[in-house]
Amino acid sequence: MDNQATQAAATDGAPSTDGAAVVSGGMSVSRPMAFRFGDPEPVLDGSGWLWTGESSWNGRWYEPPLPMAALARTLNMSAHHRSAIIYKRNQLSRHFIPSRWLSRREFEKLVLNYLLLGNGYLERRDNLGGRPLALLNVPAVNARVGRDGVYWWTSDWTTATDFRPGYVWQILEDDAAQEIYGVPEWLSALQAGLLGESATLFRRRYYINGSHAGYILYISEEKFDQTDSNQLEEAVAASKGPGNFRNLYLHIPGGKEKGVQVIQVGEAAAKDDFLNVKSVARDEMLAAHRVPPILLGHVPQNAGGLGDPAKAADVFHMAEIEPLMRRLESVNDWIGLPAIAFAPYERIAASVPGA
To answer: Is pLDDT above 60 for 340?
Structure first.
């Protein structure tokens, strides 16, 4: 805009881009402004890193619909999330019978990848005679699916190694959007887990910083000059951090009522929903994993308790562990050998007197 246009706008009192009205004479009058934060993004919005659409082809392999490295970091986002996955892995490892082709250690790695990332891979290693010698776990974070039975191992865009065609076996959790990669079955509770993590981090900042969501210190006294303001700013800054919760003394001779006001931002101190947020996040995570709370060391919130742990373990084994066993045994059909076998389950409730 040229100078003439600027002067014309100033004469008409048109609003400027900084939210102030420009009037004749070069003076500006402050105007109130209102704005809003961004709206929540729904699952069906199609944006963000959680979109599970078609896996794109980059010339060598198909890209996963979800970032595997990000999913791997979610293992520690919630105590209930990690406990549920480790409990399932331990139960499968407890009944697993090691074979000459697959050790217990490699089996546990396979199960952890499958339960956490929705994908598990085993590489076949042959002996000099061309017969299967061992099955080794391939980390799902680095594994990529190619075409014509070719799988890739990659750590970044510059390093990639292809496996011999037909020598990698994949187990995946089915996804309705594509059939190349699996997605974890607990994905629907991911937002709840991240919400619980955010609530915990917010709470930690509260204790470390010494204040909750902050406040506005409003002073309208005429006798409170810039020197006094600078001294008060230093005193407030020194009251936070380690050794916080200190008292401040402020004296303004001849001051008036409400000349100094402390305004809480959003009244966060009175509306802290930390416990409610954590409870909701916990319940959604347990529902996604379908693990009885009593098997995860959860503390009951009522006098009735959480039920009989022996009966809960028996039902959970039949409903969740045995289907996982049948899926994992499909590697035997691929390799043509009994690489994976499980010991029969003995009911705990039947062996407990009075159960």
So the answer is: yes
